[in-house]
Amino acid sequence: MGLFSTFDISGSAMTAQTVRMNLVASNLANVNSAASSVEGTYKSRQAVFKTIVNEFSNDPSVAKVAVDRIIESEEPLKAQYQPHHPNANEDGYVYMPNVNPIETMANMIDASRSYQTNVEVLNTTKQLLMRTINLGKS
Amino acid sequence: MAINFDSYLGGLDDALILRSRRSEILASNIANSDTPGYKAKDIDFKDAMSKAMGTRTEFKKDSLKMTTTNNSHIQMSQNTLSTDIMYRNPYQPSLDGNTVDAGIEKTEFSKNSIHYTANLRFLTGKFQSLTKAIKGQ
């Protein structure tokens, strides 16, 4: 109903952006997680969002957002020759995650800006509702 | 003379509902600014408002009235406030098919909030005048 569903909409966006933020943190934390095989190496993860419309009211104006799936980057891994690394394979190579720190930082800033915008929307809506409650008073 | 709230408020109540509906739509756009394939939506406020006022005047000659058995029975207003949701024309659609321009949505949301607040002020003024008239002070 009216302004109240704005809380749900902005709230869902904040949850989705939080997931994105967590993935950024995971990617940055694992930037140096070397492993001995391609399969065992950490791969950069990204969240894919999707729009959710209420199936009961089927109202297209209330479009919430949720994380649809989390995909792993297909970019090739970097193989480094480090024979003394404890995780090195028999040829002396270790595989480094395909996390691009610059890209990840840009992603982080974007996620945090989106989060902030939704908080602002929520605050404005709250103020409007409080004023509506006081309607008729001086 | 009986006071009819519908005519006394002069569409301010409808405007308030439309404004809150528009804020809902704009909030959806902002929330979906990172969703692939999402198309930004909006309503034509002027069009919706004139429709709302139109149903109001049409209603007087409309046959869908509530039965009144006494002159002091109050007629219910039954405008449904239909709003046609339209897609915004994007200036720069992104590669993933998303047409939300954060700048436009944010400014429109702020404008809409200010209009909503102004609307509330006008309504408060209306009610205050009524109270004054009742009290006679």
Describe this structure as you would to a colleague.
- The complex is a heterodimer of chains A (138) and B (137).
- With 138 residues, chain A is α+β, with helices and mostly antiparallel strands.
- Chain A has helices spanning 4-29, 101-133; strands at residues 45-53, 63-72, 78-81, 93-96.
- The relative contact order of chain A is 0.22.
- The mean pLDDT of chain A is 90.
- Chain B is mainly alpha-helical.
- Helix content of chain B is 55%, strand content 4%.
- Chain B has helices at residues 5-9, 12-31, 45-61, 102-135; strands spanning 41-43, 85-87.
- The interface between A and B is medium-sized, with 36 and 34 residues.
Describe the secondary-structure layout.
The complex is a heterodimer of chains A (138) and B (137).
Chain A (H helix, E strand, L loop, with lengths): L3 H26 L15 E9 L9 E10 L5 E4 L11 E4 L4 H33 L5
Antiparallel strand pairs in A: 1-2, 3-4
Chain B lengths: L4 H5 L2 H20 L9 E3 L1 H17 L23 E3 L14 H34 L2
Antiparallel strand pairs in B: 1-2
Oligomeric grouping of the chains = heterodimer
Strand segment tally of chain B: 2
Strand count, sense and closure of the main sheet of chain A? 2 strands, antiparallel
Order of helices and strands of chain B: HHEHEH
Strand content of chain A: 15-25%
- Strand order within the widest sheet of chain B? 1-2
Shape of chain B: elongated
Estimate percent helicity of chain B.
55-70%
Helix segment tally of chain A? 2
Distance between the termini of chain B: 20 Å
Features:
heterodimer; A: 138 residues; alpha+beta; two-stranded antiparallel ribbon; 2 helices; 4 strands; B: 137 residues; mainly alpha; two-stranded antiparallel sheet; 4 helices; 55% helix
